[in-house]
Amino acid sequence: MQELINRAKELLADGTVARVLGWKAGDLPYNPEPAYFETAEALEDFVYNGFCGANLSKYMIEASKMEGKTMVCLKPCDTYSFMQLIKEHRVDREKAYIAGVGCKGKLDIEKIRARGIRGIESIEGAELTDDAETLKIQTIYGEKSLAYADGMLERCHVCKGKEHVIFDEQIGESKETKDAERFGEVERIESLSPEEKFSYFQSELGKCIRCNACRNVCPACSCRKCVFDSNKFDSSQKANVDSFEEKMFHIIRAFHVAGRCTDCGECSRVCPQGIPLHLFNRKFIKDIDELYGEYQAGADIDSKAPLTDYTFEDAEPSIVGKRG
Amino acid sequence: MPLEKKEFKPKIVAFCCNWCSYAGADLAGSSRLTYPADVKIIRVPCSCRVNPMFILRAFEKGADGVIMCGCHPGDCHYSTGNYYARRRMTLLFSMLDYIGVESGRTRVEWVSAAEGVKFSETMNSFVEKIYSLGENVRLGDLRCKN
Ligand code: SF4
Ligand code: SF4
Ligand code: SF4
Questions:
Q1: What does DSSP assign to residue A149?
Q2: Which of A271, A253, A295 is nearest to A53 (CA)?
Q3: What is the DSSP letter of A260?
Q4: Which of B83, B84, B98, B107 to probe by mutation at the A interface, max A CB count within 10 Å?
Q5: H-type helices in chain A, by residue range?
Q6: Boundaries of every domain in chain A
């Protein structure tokens, strides 16, 4: 982290960048938040640790409109989102100085809480520099410990790899975290009966409070005017235009990002209701891979997105029934 | 007296492209071929005009099955519309199957303006399939637990 701060100070001092986009400490040990830093003094609040899961690439849409360059800290998976945004002409590559930051897996406070660890006062071992495999958590009920991997975000267990697909310089070490099959859960659901499938999704989606966090955080959801914006009430984006949108929100949104979703995992991370939104996106990714050839959105700049492309030999929709 | 159970009358929506399948339906009519009255045809300029939301909306409004018909691949009036539609519908149908709407309730069939017979046969077999699957109780509201 210190290395990152020092480098940020240098770049600010020599005028390469006008600001730094990173994370600053929050009011609790586990909620650092995205922030801009414009001076060396401001960088005192800069943090980079296991709780910096937030993908900063979408902020670059706004930062691209600002004066001067922005140094943006992107983890390996975040760089896919950034690449996809360049491809969709939503960010200006020239306005970004990309610090590809190392990553040893990001933590999910909900997973830690789910282990019955409450009343957290401080957490040790969530620093990137710390080699410890265990989190030491000081709570109001005494000290608890948890294996780092057990507190990790779902997406880190199926990490795409620790390569930055785009960067100006790389800072910090990474560590392999992948220990699960990316499509494992999707396959499990596919094998259920129609009744079981529906009741599973109904019970998950029934929890949704339509806060729109999943849409707002998504780097692929960068439409200036979204179909889910109500044109009736300027002040309240949340209000649904009609009940149809309310009911089908998740499928429509997943379809809109199909072929463009990099599987960055932000939607599932931010959902306050813990809805596994990645199961929708990944189903599309799995189908695209199987039917139209492996495709990773954001891996390159010039490939055609699967839904804006076709071949004469594409499978017929009846394949859905045949695959069983 | 016990209430009699209402006979199942499926609601089936067919999106037909103006240039091929709708004309195919016309031909079926003028050739005096029959297809069940349960099928409600919606004419669209091209199969590619069928936004996935149309299909979802049909299900939300209580459709028991949705079928989309267009020109044969290679014969699209706009050259390539149906190729895009083919990918889109494949992914959408697969997603619907994934959330529990049986794949038998969705179908794509390519019917040309000269294929009145195929149109009638397709609709008959699709309706039969929907009768066998019964009422679609899902997707009225994906989010509310009954
Ligand atoms: S849909 Fe979710 S996983 Fe996909 S790009 Fe958006 S936030 Fe990331
Ligand atoms: S939900 Fe659809 S319309 Fe809205 S921002 Fe996302 S992709 Fe765009
Ligand atoms: S973040 Fe979760 S609760 Fe909020 S709208 Fe998305 S799915 Fe619903």
A1: G
A2: A271
A3: T
A4: B98
A5: 2-13, 59-63, 76-87, 109-114, 154-157, 184-190, 194-205, 213-217, 243-257, 266-270, 278-292, 319-323
A6: 2-171, 184-322
| Strand runs labelled E in A90-133 | 96-101, 120-124
pTM given for the model: 0.92
Q: What is the mean pLDDT of chain A?
A: 91
Q: Is B75 on the interface with A (CB under 8 A)?
A: no
Domain boundaries B12-144, corresponding CATH code:
3.40.50
Pairwise CA distance, residues B68 & B118, whole Å? 14
Q: Largest Cα–Cα distance in chain B?
A: 60
CB A267 within 8 A of CB A278: yes
Sequence spans of domains, chain B: 12-144
Residue A213: partners with Cβ closer than 8 Å, 6 or more residues away: A270, A271, A272
Decide if B60 contacts B79 (C-beta within 8 A). no
Closest ligand to C-alpha of residue A267 is 1
* Structure-token pair, residue A231: 């044109």
What tokens does A6 get? 């020092």
Q: Quick: pLDDT tens for A248-306.
A: 899 999 999 999 999 999 999 999 999 999 999 999 999 999 999 999 999 999 999 99
The C-alpha atoms of residue B95 and residue A279 are separated, in whole angstroms, by: 11
CA distance A256 to chain B (A): 10
- Record: contact B100-A314, CB cut-off 8 A: no
Give the dihedral of Cα atoms A69, A73, A75, A76; nearest 10 deg: 30
Question: Is the ipTM above a cut-off of 0.95?
Answer: no
In whole angstroms, give the CA distance from residue A135 to residue A65. 40
**Beta-strand (E) ranges in A141-190?**
142-147, 169-171
Nearest to A268 by CA among A158, A178, A192: A158
Which of A272, A285, A227, A255 lies closest to A80 in space, CA to CA? A285
Q: What is the average per-residue pLDDT within B100-115?
A: 94
| Chain B residues within 8 A of A320 when measuring between CB atoms | 90, 93-94, 97, 103, 106
